[in-house]
Design goal:
Layout (H helix, E strand, L loop, with lengths): L2 H8 L2 H5 L1 H13 L3 H6 L1 E5 L2 E6 L11 E4 L2 H6 L16 H18 L12 H13 L4 H8 L21 H10 L2 H4 L2
Antiparallel strand pairs: 1-2, 2-3
Helix pairs in contact: 3-7
Length: 187
């Protein structure tokens, strides 16, 4: 999504007043999670930092299971997140929530006169924007992989297939989340 689209979405009644759309919008914006991951994530405290426990039961890829520290703005925004609790939605499924988001997004793009571009944008656009913002902030693909659930590069692998890359510390992941300059621009 462009900056203008995000600002327009942020200012809609849905993001202002609809619990599910508001929560989905902000969590997706600050984490780049897939909609199914947002819907099924839980809160987990790791090394004293409140995080999203993503795909703890497995996910789309082998790397999907991960933790994502909550951005400081999200910690204050969400409904009293507590260790072990699921992220709460009124929607009955990720599919239901995705359909609601799709209708919302389509309406916003129509209102902006960009209805012909609707098929190019979806919930997954948050993921692209998140990764782009982290790259622009100076982080590389290997550093970003722990937050996005992407497989790490083959660079550094031994012939036996072992890797030199280990999961980054929670404090490093928090630093990455907090450092994206675009985030504060639309709040």
């Amino acid at each position: 999504f462009s900056h203008e689209m995000l600002v327009r979405m942020k200012n809609t009644p849905e993001v202002q007043q609809d619990h599910d759309i508001r929560q989905l919008f902000w969590i997706s914006y600050f984490t780049g999670m897939r909609i199914s991951e947002v819907f099924s994530s839980r809160y987990k405290t790791v090394d004293g930092v409140l995080c999203f426990d993503v795909a703890s039961e497995g996910g789309k890829t082998a790397s999907a299971r991960r933790i994502i520290p909550l951005h400081s703005w999200l910690t204050d925004f969400l409904d009293e997140p507590k260790d072990g609790d699921a992220v709460q939605f009124k929607a009955t499924s990720a599919t239901n929530l995705g359909k609601r988001f799709g209708r919302f997004k389509d309406r916003v793009l129509d209102d902006m006169g960009q209805g012909s571009d609707k098929r190019h944008y979806g919930h997954h656009s948050f993921r692209h924007g998140f990764i782009t913002a982290l790259l622009a902030a100076g982080y590389n693909e290997v550093e970003i992989a722990d937050l996005t659930g992407h497989k790490k590069s083959n660079i550094g692998r031994t012939e036996a297939g072992k890797t030199y890359f280990h999961r980054q510390s929670v404090s490093k992941l928090l630093k990455v989340i907090e450092s994206v300059p675009l985030l504060a621009a639309i709040i």
